[in-house]
Design goal:
This protein has helices spanning 56-63, 88-92, 105-113, 147-157, 199-211, 225-234, 247-262; strands spanning 5-8, 25-29, 67-72, 96-101, 116-118, 139-144. By secondary structure, the protein is an alpha/beta fold. A six-stranded mixed beta sheet has the order 1-3-2-4-6-5, sandwiched between helices. β2, α1 and β3 (67-72) form a beta-alpha-beta unit.
Length: 268
């Protein structure tokens, strides 16, 4: 029995050789429904349950030509990372993985595995077919070996779903890759996230965070490669645009800044 997979697809080959994700091997957490697969969300409450239909994200992966490798082991209902193998498939044999993210599971697992993690904005990716505990908090998180893979994966998964009424009806934002040199890119900063800094140094901290990767090669020396690469890609053009945000966003951003300090970024 695999220590990573709860269920391994016996025939992972893609049925669509010309899709935009052809050749991409994608693992799925056991909280993602796949028709005919034992989708129990690693919970005794769903023991022996077999999914009746594909989740919307699975349908879109198939339509884009991705190869599904299997279902990875998770904590019960994907809540937390205790006993979870999230990220290990990307570290070993998969190019990407879809997981349930409620409290940062996707992003923490990505840092743990030395991979790249992304939590799509609310209303961007369908949640139909995800098995979880708290619908108002759950989203489909993405892990991948590279930013390019994340971009291609998000482009294939994002979009309206007539059976998921939580999705936005507005047109999708541009998912095109950012320019390599960062020109014309705007980086939004939440002022409250820097509230621990002395007021006179809060604005000065933004260029310092942006310039920091220039002193180290991106994705090489930082334990959190995704953070390094994100800032490195955006460092060339920064605009300060404070705007009101919800309290929950402020708390999350404050935690992010504190963690950034622990891996070597300084706010001075």
């Amino acid at each position: 029995m695999s220590p990573i997979y709860r269920f391994e697809n016996p025939d992972p080959a893609s049925a669509l050789p010309d899709g935009p994700l052809h050749g991409m091997r994608v693992a799925l957490q056991s909280t993602v429904s796949v028709a005919g697969w034992p989708t129990d969300a690693d919970s005794a409450a769903l023991a022996d349950f077999t999914a009746l239909e594909d989740a919307t994200v699975v349908q879109r992966l198939r339509q884009a030509g991705a190869a599904l490798t299997g279902l990875t082991r998770a904590s019960e209902f994907g809540f937390g990372l205790h006993g979870s193998q999230v990220g290990e498939a990307v570290r070993s044999d998969a190019d990407a993985e879809l997981v349930l993210d409620m409290m940062g599971e996707c992003r923490v697992a990505a840092a743990r595995a030395g991979a790249f993690g992304l939590l799509p904005s609310v209303g961007l990716v369908s949640r139909l077919g995800l098995i979880g505990l708290i619908p108002s908090m759950e989203r489909c998180g993405l892990l991948a070996r590279s930013c390019d893979t994340l971009s291609a994966l998000l482009a294939a998964l994002a979009g309206p779903d007539g059976r998921d009424l939580t999705l936005e009806e507005a047109p999708l934002p541009s998912l095109a890759p950012l320019p390599k040199d960062g020109r014309g890119v705007t980086l939004g900063v939440i002022p409250q996230a820097l509230e621990d800094c002395p007021p006179r140094k809060q604005r000065a901290s933004v260029p310092r965070l942006i310039d920091w990767p220039q002193r180290a090669s991106p994705c090489a020396s930082c334990p959190c490669r995704s953070t390094t690469c994100l800032i490195w890609c955006m460092r060339s053009s920064v605009q300060w645009r404070p705007r009101p945000v919800r309290a929950v966003t402020i708390r999350c951003a404050t935690v992010t800044v504190r963690r950034a300090r622990r891996i070597g970024m300084r706010c001075i």
